[in-house]
Amino acid sequence: MPKLELGPIGLLPPSAAAMGIFHPEHGSGMDLVEGEHIPTDDAIIKGARELLTRRNPTLFPGPMIVWGWNDETMHKADMAMDLVREIPGMNVIPMPDYRPIYPKIDPEAVINPCHPNLTVDHNKIKVCALIGVHCHFANITLKMIRANTDCYTQAWCAYDGHEDALLSLSNLDGPKLTKIIEAVKKLKKDGLEPWGLTKEGKEELEEIAARKAQAKAPKKEDTTLFMGELEQGLDENAE
Fold first, then answer.
1. Contacts of the segment 153-161: beta carbons below 8 A, 24+ positions apart
2. Mean pLDDT, range 159-180, rounded to an integer
3. Could you tell me the pLDDT band of residue 55, with boundaries at 50, 70 and 90?
């Protein structure tokens, strides 16, 4: 089976599917790691290790998490934040909207599927996990990150998963997210030193915190609403 390699690959890399990488069969107890089918429990441990040891681990929650559509979504969002608290120095940068952000994106505030590499590069992110991002936008985002950066991407998907992620977990639910959290806790208990607690990690995190503290928040009247106004659709009942 072809192996998915860490980027940067180039401007137009082939999709993982075009390389012959496909999802494991549903119910097989397998998930995708770097293009290979491995047992789900092993994939979870691998993902937890990467999140703990790579530089500037970051969670990218999408609309299905950010907007809290129902009780299940809000519960999953709470669990995701429990995970963030277990990983020293882990950042959270949401993808609240899929529309292009012009004239420029604020890479410390959001990630956008039209130019996700800008957020990854600006924040020096070497490992990330997407959760709650609709599949078609996750596919675009993952491919662009793999093309232009050396970030180790993880996709935690409620459905089939994503071939273009370096590590893809499918059918993500509460119990599976709990397994990820428990894997992180066990690795730390077994003595694995998180990047955020290394000398290099502490220095970088202190520098980031100092830069954010110096940034002055704009006055309320000077801010622009992120969402903006949407065009009115046709109302077939209008006279």
1. 153/127, 153/128, 153/129, 154/47, 154/50, 154/51, 154/127, 154/128, 154/129, 154/130, 155/129, 155/130, 156/129, 156/130, 156/131, 156/180, 158/64, 159/135, 160/23, 160/26, 160/135, 161/23, 161/31, 161/32
2. 94
3. very high
57 upstream amide cis, omega within 30 of 0: no
Question: Which band of pLDDT confidence, cut at 50, 70 and 90, is reported for residue 238?
Answer: very low
For residue 108, give the nearest of 224, 213, 212, 202 by alpha carbon. Answer: 212
CB under 8 A, 24+ apart: contacts of 63-67: 63/95, 63/96, 63/97, 63/98, 63/132, 63/133, 63/134, 64/132, 64/133, 64/134, 64/158, 65/131, 65/132, 66/94, 66/95, 66/96, 66/132, 67/96
Structural domains for the chain? 41-201 (3.40.50)
Confidence of residue 236 (pLDDT cuts 50, 70, 90): low
- 51 neighbors 92 (Cβ within 8 angstroms): no
Mean pLDDT along residues 96-120: 88
Return d(Cα 167, Cα 156) in angstroms, integer.
9
Cβ neighbours for 34, distance < 8 A, ≥ 6 positions apart: 3, 4, 5, 166, 167
